[in-house]
Amino acid sequence: MIDKEIIVTDEKTIDSMNSEGLYLDYSKDSLMSAEGDIVLFFHADWCPACVSIDNKIKNDSIPSDLTILKVDFDNSTELKKVY
């Protein structure tokens, strides 16, 4: 049995724990505790499309069986090689 820990990063995440999926920063812990379908969103602050998508994710609802993990594109070389 794996102990699961929910990492709360903002008010939107608190609300989403009740009826929506989650949008969290990527970490090994957040990956291990994720349930349902998992999407890795490779994000860079300098990328206009990434910033736009990030804002859309934060402002729209996420299906309850989905966890989106925001991965730092610039600092995740090994993870980029895998995916």
Record keyword descriptors for this entry.
three-stranded parallel sheet; flat; disordered N terminus; 4 helices; alpha/beta; 83 residues
Give a summary of the structure in a few sentences:
The chain has 83 residues and is an alpha/beta fold. It is 40% helix and 22% strand. The chain has helices at 11-19, 28-33, 48-59, 77-82, and strands spanning 22-25, 37-43, 66-72.
Can you walk me through this structure?
- Helices cover 40% and strands 22% of the residues.
- The longest helix is centred in the middle third of the chain and has 12 residues, at 48-59.
- Strands 1-3-2 form a 3-stranded parallel sheet.
- With 83 residues, it is α/β, with parallel strands linked by helices.
Describe the secondary-structure layout.
Blueprint: H1 11-19, E1 22-25, H2 28-33, E2 37-43, H3 48-59, E3 66-72, H4 77-82
Parallel strand pairs: 1-3, 2-3
What is the number of helices? Answer: 4
Query: From the helix content, strand content and strand pairing, which structural class follows?
Result: alpha/beta
| pLDDT < 50 runs, ≥5 residues | 1-18
Strand elements, count: 3
What sort of overall outline do the alpha carbons produce when their principal axes are compared? flat
Please report the distance between the alpha carbons of the first and last residues: 27 Å
Give the biggest sheet. 3 strands, parallel
Order of helices and strands: HEHEHEH
Helicity level, as a percent range? 25-40%
Strand order of the largest sheet: 1-3-2
Strand content: 15-25%
What is the typical, i.e. mean, pLDDT?
82
Q: Which radius of gyration do the C-alpha atoms yield?
A: 13 Å
